[in-house]
Please model this.
Amino acid sequence: MTLIRQQDFIDSIADALQFISYYHPADYIRALAEAYRTEASPAAKDAMAQILTNSRMCATGHRPICQDTGIVVAFVKVGMQVRWETELDVVEMVNAGVRKAYLDPGNVLRASIVSDPAGARLNTHDNTPAVVHVELVQGDKVEVRIAAKGGGSENKAVMRMLNPGDDIVEWVLKSVEGMGAGWCPPGMLGIGIGGTAEKAVLLAKEALMYPMDMHELKARGAADFIEALRIELYDKINALGIGAQGLGGLTTVLDVKVLDYPTHAASKPVAIIPNCAATRHIHFELDGTGRAEFVPPNLSDYPDVQWHPAQDARRVNLDNLTREQIREWQPGETVLLSGRLLTGRDAAHKRITEMLARGEKLPEGVDFTNRFIYYVGPVDPVKGEVVGPAGPTTATRMDRYTEAMLDKTGLMGMVGKAERGPQAIESIRKHAAVYLIAVGGAAYLVSRAIRSAKVVAFADLGMEAIYEFEVEDMPVTVAVDSRGRSVHDIGPMEWKKRIGMIPVRAM
Ligand code: SF4
Model:
């Protein structure tokens, strides 16, 4: 019989979450370093260099890899020979660990969880509750696999009850093409096959908790049907040409993990959950001897990649930029932004557009005339920082507000991540505006370009408040130019054609 003490369990959960907030798993770093080495698309290679540089900075600075520090998901397997010394249940203990980790003053993490999701959506302020799956198993240990899952990648999860005769590969390829870049590739896909609807989704999530080993698998060859399926999916998904951040390139996925389970003869449930550039998970066991220990990676395991802006990058001053100047910008071009930038994301956009619809004036300090807005919800600063990690959030969610923002506020441009939908692109073209992307998963690197930050409106929205940032040489890429041309259409189509494994349909 093993005795597990409450504080050991809580401290282990908290330590694990702090650890993964700034250390990528070693297998992810190895796989990304290899993908970086072989990438032939300059735009995708540049994005990977930013993610690798950011990763090393986070490892040395002990600050989050991404401003979205995730929703906590834990798979807890409790041995049947385990006894607990606690007055809490397992879920309460996990939540106590989450609270401790996310409120740690030395490396404060962003609280992203809202209660009442269908209604008021109020932030719980300590990132609880976690999503916890507890299973009773044979043995005398407690085994935990825990992740801090990014919202952008979780939002792209898909599940389908296929017919037994349907082709899984065909459905996965179609689904991945439909996901766009909001899941911040390069990352990995977890695929669950079989069971029932909810079992397939759980399998897909659990599959993401295992280390990447695609290179080893390809080297030794598939030993069974599932391994052969993983290789086929890995090769064909990468042949779609989506590339890092959807810019077009050779690597979209670093691995594809598949778990399966017996199912009903009439069913073939399949679920896909992507994991992003901020892949954060860890595995530990408790055997009654105390809290878990986590060994930091050796910095020599990180590739020697130091991102620097391209020599020929266009430098612009946001404070005196004109609409004539932005007309010259081309899709895929790198731009370094300096000057003042307003921020805002979902809740701020909703409030602004409601105020505009009622004919109300926007708050003082919120004048978008010929300005740019950055879709971001930063981490709170610590230890003299101006702002914590502050990477972009998915722009697609702001599409519904884009026409009103461009038409009624004088806004000239937007900075976010991932592609825009057809309506937003049409608005950008109509108003001769521009949409730029920063790299998702390079939040600490991006935040180094922010020289000052102050909240100018909607302070009650917390991380969703409107800030004014003063930036210097903030690296972005032109994603939709003033003529409505999108790099997320042009890039993947070009690379799919170059790779030549999958036929390209005319647009
Ligand atoms: S890398 Fe992208 S999807 Fe992942 S947590 Fe960060 S912003 Fe979200």
